[in-house]
């Protein structure tokens, strides 16, 4: 780790500590893991982008059904291709870290679940979300009737203003009362 | 339903715009309203807690620094100090939590078995920490003062007991251990000023332990309770929780992910079936209702019979072991293994009953045709009742015999000494003429010690002689019928109940066996590694989803129940006029009773403190105090009700607002 530690300037390291929920060790570990993903010739800098396909090979993400959404949400790429810079990667780890607040976790969870990026969870989003949860193959999916029943149940519970969609504040309202959420919305390197 | 979202005007609504800014900060950066967007955040929030990307955080930081310049010196200074203080506090917590290693183990377990199993290990760690603190208090307040006071005096009251050490004694807590700091009897002292100090310290240490345990357990219970209360029945959002926080992002393993998919699907299907179930319940005919109730009553009778049977077994076992012990001659003739079994008979019976019956209860609850959650809770309640009640009944029997012993006026002088063994057995009890006063407190401590040690032995045997071979068979012959029937899972509820039980035993025994907390600490460490081995090597991930939180409250609540039982037991046994059992002439309160210690120590205090204490004790203060408490409680209760009403009203208002908005939108679009 000593070699990689020297690659990350000290002031940058302390700035990252300031701006994220990560500890020094976690940042260094993240840096090490990220440099491993970058091809040999490319040196890691603040602007080096790692394509989404490579990020998805990380063992922490590879069996996560939301992995592509996670990359898209945290990517600052103009092309919207889900590629991540090191800082994006740190943002990701920070949001998923142990010490991140419920507020921030629920915010990012909402964006991950908002598949069409329109700012609300509508029926299509919920359907995709349920499919991600149950496994998205022919034989693991719920039947249409079950799905309809389930979505109407969800909306009945969490759509407080009864407009047919779940918006961010409703989502946070529901999530804040789910005590399991903070412990499950977590990715640790 | 969502058509109006595509109306253009919706994009211009203030709420939608502020959301957009948060969603796409990089777009906003180029547009002119970027300062507005950066300024949106509450300045007291740390930068790391903002849901924006790193570059934006930097900009926000710059902006904040500018603002800080604009602020007065004092304000900026206090803000910086506040941030510094917060950071150092966070640092402190991090260091404190890193002292307890095993974080990595916990993550590993969580990755493979999900949070339910991890919650068990966290609970275990919590109990371990609690016991560690209690041990420190005991060693500081009870053990060290006595050691200092006693010095090197080895013989008590002129009675010197020279005994040979044996392995059996460690297990039974008898023989040479009788006279070690392990038990109550050791903390004896002759009358005198110093003695009172020791007794006072003993009392103080014990009070400290109970108060500390109470505070810690209540804190945990209340935190959990608040959550469950908020998520309680009046606003049920269980399905949304399953969807929105259903995925465990810690999972790193493909097979575990597969399993999680299955779990979630099964659970969702179960919920949907639950709906069907409720529909079916509402359609039941009278005839079906009657037959169901008959069945339920019969099954409850069966449960009661099982409970009664196990209590009777405990009764028989305790009596048998007592009688055997009384007839010393018979004891001395038997081999050591029989002694071991006889000594442990009550413990063995309790542990066996506790092992078998919860499993039986689970099977029974299946037939009762309740919904699944009710089944699980019912099993849990019955098992808890069994665990705590069996312990309570065991103790009750012990007291009963003690009382009858006392009433018979039979002052038990007996010998527990051993001559060096003449035979090949490690310990061979033979009677000799040396007499020493039997100390029932010691005996009680010994029983609790045995229960505690046997609990550890039982889990050791369970893991290494039952679970591990089973696992081996399953791996060796994966296709055999036996293998399929022996699929093992980590039953979190049962394991947590084991922990609650062992902690209750510790609290029960701590007064009579002060070092029991140290033993519990060691034991829990061993249990941690054993269970880790068990869960990682022998268990298949559970098929049923475990809702961590609602059950954890129940676990803490049972823990609280255990503590209450222990406290009640202690206060009853100290107030000797209730039980009619005389305190025996040994231990720290042999020459001086508990109340005497208290009154004497109050007597040392300065006059005004004494009079203040006396006033506080009087009715003139007590009655108004109760009144004030009632007023405060009523106040809180009515405030809670008012809050509930406000929530309902606000909800109604939200729906109202939204329908107004939709109406206006419709008007607007039709007008255009």
Automatic annotation (TrEMBL), chain A:
Sorted keywords for this record are: Calcium, Magnesium, Metal-binding, Repeat
Query: What is the top-level taxon of the source organism?
Result: Eukaryota
GO MF terms, alphabetically ordered: metal ion binding
Q: Which segments constitute the EF-hand domain?
A: 101-136, 146-181
| Pfam families according to UniProt | EF-hand_7 (PF13499)
**Keyword Repeat assigned:** yes
The entry's protein name is EF-hand domain-containing protein
Q: What is the lineage of its organism?
A: Eukaryota, Metazoa, Chordata, Craniata, Vertebrata
Automatic annotation (TrEMBL), chain B:
Q: What subcellular locations does the record give?
A: Membrane
Query: What is the membrane topology noted in the UniProt record heading this document?
Result: Multi-pass membrane protein
What ranges does the record give for the region Disordered, renumbered to this chain? Answer: 14-38
Q: Which InterPro entries match?
A: TMC, TMC_dom
Q: Which GO terms describe its cellular component?
A: membrane
Q: Enumerate the spans annotated as TMC domain.
A: 439-548
Presence of the UniProt keyword Metal-binding in the record? no
Q: What is this protein called?
A: Transmembrane channel-like protein
- Taxonomic source organism: Coilia grayii
């Amino acid at each position: 780790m000593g070699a990689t530690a020297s690659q990350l300037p000290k002031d940058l390291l302390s700035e990252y500590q300031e701006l994220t929920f990560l500890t020094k060790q976690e940042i260094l570990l993240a840096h090490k893991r990220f440099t491993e993903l970058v091809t040999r010739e490319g040196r890691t800098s603040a602007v080096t982008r790692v394509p989404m396909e490579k990020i998805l090979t990380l063992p922490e993400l590879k069996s996560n059904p939301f992995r592509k959404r996670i990359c898209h949400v945290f990517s600052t790429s103009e092309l919207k291709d889900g590629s991540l810079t090191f800082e994006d990667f740190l943002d990701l780890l920070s949001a998923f870290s142990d010490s991140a607040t419920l507020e921030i976790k629920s915010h990012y969870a909402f964006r991950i679940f908002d598949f069409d990026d329109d700012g609300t969870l509508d029926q299509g989003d919920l359907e995709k979300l349920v499919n991600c949860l149950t496994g998205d193959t022919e034989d693991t999916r719920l039947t249409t009737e079950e799905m309809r029943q389930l979505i109407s149940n969800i909306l009945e519970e969490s759509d407080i203003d009864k407009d047919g969609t779940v918006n961010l504040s409703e989502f946070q309202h529901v999530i804040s009362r789910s005590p399991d959420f903070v412990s499950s919305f977590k990715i640790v390197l | 339903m969502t058509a109006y979202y595509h109306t253009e005007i919706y994009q211009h609504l203030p709420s939608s715009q502020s959301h957009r800014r948060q969603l796409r900060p990089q777009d906003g950066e180029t547009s002119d309203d970027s300062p507005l967007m950066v300024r949106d955040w509450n300045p007291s929030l740390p930068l790391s807690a903002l849901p924006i990307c790193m570059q934006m955080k930097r900009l926000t930081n710059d902006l904040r620094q500018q603002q800080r310049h604009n602020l007065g010196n004092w304000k900026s200074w206090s803000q910086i100090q506040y941030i510094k203080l917060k950071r150092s506090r966070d640092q402190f917590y991090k260091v404190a939590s890193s002292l307890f290693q095993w974080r990595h183990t916990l993550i590993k377990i969580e990755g493979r078995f999900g949070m339910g199993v991890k919650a068990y290990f966290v609970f275990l760690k919590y109990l371990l920490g609690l016991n560690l603190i209690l041990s420190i208090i005991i060693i500081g307040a009870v053990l060290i003062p006595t050691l200092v006071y006693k010095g090197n005096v080895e013989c008590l009251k002129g009675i010197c007991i020279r005994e040979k050490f044996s392995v059996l004694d460690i297990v039974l807590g008898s023989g040479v251990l009788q006279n070690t700091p392990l038990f109550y009897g050791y903390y004896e002292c002759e009358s005198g000023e110093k003695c009172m100090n020791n007794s006072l310290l003993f009392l103080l240490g014990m009070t400290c332990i109970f108060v500390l345990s109470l505070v810690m357990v209540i804190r945990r219970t209340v935190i959990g309770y608040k959550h469950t209360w908020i998520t309680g029945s009046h606003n049920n959002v269980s399905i949304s929780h399953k969807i929105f926080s259903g995925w465990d992002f810690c999972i790193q393993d493909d097979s575990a992910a597969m399993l999680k998919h299955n779990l979630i699907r099964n659970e969702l299907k179960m919920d949907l079936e639950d709906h069907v179930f409720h529909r079916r319940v509402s359609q039941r005919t009278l005839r079906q209702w009657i037959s169901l109730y008959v069945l339920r009553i019969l099954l409850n009778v069966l449960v009661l019979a099982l409970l009664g049977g196990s209590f009777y077994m405990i009764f028989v076992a305790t009596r048998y072991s007592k009688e055997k012990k009384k007839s010393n001659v018979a004891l001395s003739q038997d081999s050591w293994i029989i002694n071991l079994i006889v000594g442990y008979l009550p413990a063995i019976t309790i542990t066996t009953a506790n092992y078998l019956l919860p499993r039986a209860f689970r099977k029974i609850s299946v037939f009762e045709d309740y919904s699944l959650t009710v089944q699980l809770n019912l099993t849990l309640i019955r098992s808890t009742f069994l665990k705590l009640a069996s312990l309570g009944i065991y103790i009750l029997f012990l007291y009963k015999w003690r009382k009858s012993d006392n009433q018979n006026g039979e002052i038990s002088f007996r010998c527990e000494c051993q001559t060096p063994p003449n035979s090949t057995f490690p310990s061979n009890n033979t009677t000799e003429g040396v007499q020493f006063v039997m100390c029932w407190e010691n005996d009680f401590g010994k029983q609790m010690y045995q229960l505690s040690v046997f609990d550890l032995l039982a889990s050791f045997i369970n893991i290494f002689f039952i679970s591990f071979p089973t696992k081996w068979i399953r791996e060796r012959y994966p296709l055999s019928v036996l293998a399929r029937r022996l699929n093992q899972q980590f039953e979190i509820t049962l394991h947590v109940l084991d922990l609650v039980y062992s902690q209750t035993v510790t609290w029960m025994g701590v007064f009579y066996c002060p070092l029991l907390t140290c033993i519990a600490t060691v034991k829990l460490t061993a249990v941690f590694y054993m269970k880790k081995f068990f869960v990682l090597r022998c268990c298949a991930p559970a098929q049923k989803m475990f809702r961590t939180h609602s059950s954890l409250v129940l676990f803490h609540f049972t823990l609280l129940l255990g503590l209450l039982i222990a406290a009640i037991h202690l206060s009853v046994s100290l107030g000797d006029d209730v039980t009619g059992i005389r305190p025996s002439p040994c231990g720290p309160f042999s020459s001086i009773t508990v109340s005497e210690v208290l009154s004497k120590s109050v007597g040392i205090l300065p006059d005004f403190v004494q009079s203040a204490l006396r006033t506080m004790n009087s009715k003139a203060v007590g009655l108004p105090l109760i009144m004030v408490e009632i007023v405060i409680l009523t106040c809180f209760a009515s405030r809670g009700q008012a809050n509930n009403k406000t929530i309902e009203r606000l909800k109604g208002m939200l729906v109202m607002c939204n329908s107004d908005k939709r109406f206006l939108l419709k008007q607007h679009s039709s007008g255009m």
